[in-house]
């Protein structure tokens, strides 16, 4: 069997066409890794600088009414996780910064997809794209003739006549091809690991562990593809048929299924348009929600006066404005939670449709896992958005509380730099690897099933393969 | 003609072709239907924006005592600025899925309001979408390749080429084979085009004609390419691999490399700066004297200079001048950002001519007004609208007029952006690139003679 492995390996390396294809894919992989890393790093530095500027603006805003400061607000930047240079995931479509201010939960700004020409939407050159699309194509091109070609040339019979078993033959070929691929992928993985170690562009959220699992996911994907290609090569009447079938599989897996999944998930779980969404929020803001009406200033005043047993607002021990602002803020938060919560939930349900459709196209499972491990999926975006919103609410509570406690109704009250400085900056802890994988059990199961199924199919087909 | 008929029958009889054609047809019809739904949704959204405006106006007018200053009502009033959707965007949805063409504009600082997007799940946006352009420009070529790659090599490998050669000259034989496949594909494309036109309707301005021409030329380009490769002396598998390689290069690699180069050549970090500057410009004004804010305002609107506002009290004229100060602070960054995007668009358009399928795709987006330039034109139209609203309400603000004194029926309406460029301007370069590339591909091809050897054995490893 060793001979078969070696022969297959040298055959692949000797064939000029494959050499060119592999060099091309390898070069694309390295370029995309390098570019992704440089970009992630510069984005991280840009954000760090902008974050520092924003904090500086916040601290040096001088004497101001706390509510003005609340309106002034502050930027929060979603940190880039270390592995985001491998897979940018949904980042181009979500933006990575959000403005936190009084009275409203803002959408994320800075969505690079907005700057992109149509050409950029067709395909960004990321390592994930190369790994998800081009490497499987290379595997197909290396494997489709492995058995069908030998049979066509009549050499399969000769090989088997030497006494070698079918299984050894197939395994030998698979290992030979895998060895050739390893020449391409191992250096890329090493470069990726080196980039992680040397200067991870983002904060550490177990980057190496994430990287190892990510490598495992892609290894499983490639192995499944190799086994599937071998199965088809054993089964097909000619190398030509095997190639056409495998290319069909590749097209459905990589191009058709993901787009059908988009339409299907939109159809099963529709989302409101931007306008409808905004209108709903406005309507609930005006009319109240869940039986809770919009805070009514005169009623609140009455209540406060009764509570403190005084006649005039000037005699209240708190600033009525601060109390009212906080009430409004909490009323608004309830509405944001309802609407944004429902929207995020719908997004996640749409994601589950994608994960389930991985039964037809393993790419969907790989994509889900890859984005998850790179920290660039919708769930981790939500994780950050939730943390940023919690921070905004804390900020508003501080501002309104300061206004209520330290001034009296009717005062012209200005808070000083102490208040700005004692407001802590946003500290965000990215989710752990366990959290990510726990969310992705369905994808792990489906990918595992594909792997096992493809290997079993290859074994079965090789056993039954016609000799010639 | 008899040859073509025979060949047609042969192609249709092979099972794989029927399955692939059916799949393509189903996907195409689905895409056209989705495109139609998108247009419907956009039209509904525009109508809803108009209704929302009417409702809000009525609500605000009834909410405030008539003597309230109009400036207060204007703080809340959001005016619809809806760009009508082109019919062709059902075919080429481009950016329409992520961008909204239904902004609602308040009289406040504009920069922060311009870049709203649709509430699309980012995961779905990242996955790409299945529009008719995708079916016709990305998938159809694969089908062309699948039915054409072995027209000569297949006969040779089966040993039937010599026999076929007895009935007709090779040139005629190959012409008949290609002719049959062109007819088949023509039927497929026509039925998709008819379905698309029936579902979405057609703009009567020649753009649909250009779009149809581009799709036909693009399909013929792939036939020319297949013919060029398939008439060589390679084996069937060799042909298939080369053609798929070219397809991958044209569909994935070249666009990805071009866009990478584009974003490196034209970096656009200003997106973030805009909003920061606008907010900074606005908020700083709280700490300035009112006269300083007004002077900056008068620089841009000299017709109002001299209308002083009181220093010691809040006036709406000053409040909106403060908002203007925000836009003014972001103006340079905003222009720079817009210029970078324009340059990116022009650069992509120019260099895409080297990759004819990409050029066709960009041209289709342009024809459908779903491209970047059209989005920028829409933003410009919104900017103009904002200026017109300002001009309209400035007298109201300076005279501190009450809500009852304003004729709310006379509020200017949004004027949609004009189409970017002529149809021919969008279509012609791409069409020329496709024709030129087709000719080049045809020149590569050679019709083999009868007894030509089967060529070197390629493909199997």
Measure the end-to-end span of chain B. Answer: 40 Å
Portion in helices of chain B:
55-70%
Rough outline of chain B? elongated
The quaternary structure here is heterodimer
| Strand residue percentage of chain A | under 5%
Instruction: Give unreliable regions of chain B as ranges.
Output: 449-461
> Can you write the helix and strand succession of chain A as a string?
HHHEHEEHHHHHHHHHHHHHHH
Given the helix and strand composition of chain A, which structural class is it?
mainly alpha
Proportion of residues in helical segments of chain A = over 70%
Which chain pair has the greatest contact?
A-B, 99 and 88 residues
Number of strands of chain A: 3
Helical run tally of chain B: 16
Question: What is the approximate shape of chain A?
Answer: elongated
Overall pLDDT metric of chain A: 86
- The count of domains of chain A is 1
Task: Give a description of the structure.
The relative contact order of chain A is 0.15. Chain A is mainly α and 468 residues long. Chain A has 19 helices and three strands. Chain A starts with a helix and ends with a helix. In chain A, strand 2 (97-101) and strand 3 form a beta hairpin. Helix content of chain A is 72%, strand content 2%. Chain A has one domain. By secondary structure, chain B is mainly α. Chain B has one domain (2-444). Helix content of chain B is 68%, strand content 2%. Chain B has helices at residues 2-13, 15-63, 70-76, 122-127, 132-148, 153-158, 161-167, 170-200, 207-230, 236-265, 270-284, 290-300, 316-351, 356-367, 372-398, 423-444, and strands spanning 79-82, 102-105. Chain B is elongated, with a radius of gyration of 29 Å. Chains A and B meet through helix 1, helix 2, helix 3, helix 4 and helix 5 of A and helix 2, helix 4, helix 5, helix 10 and helix 11 of B.
List keywords for this structure.
heterodimer, A: 468 residues, mainly alpha, three-stranded antiparallel beta sheet, elongated, B: 461 residues, 16 helices, 2% strand
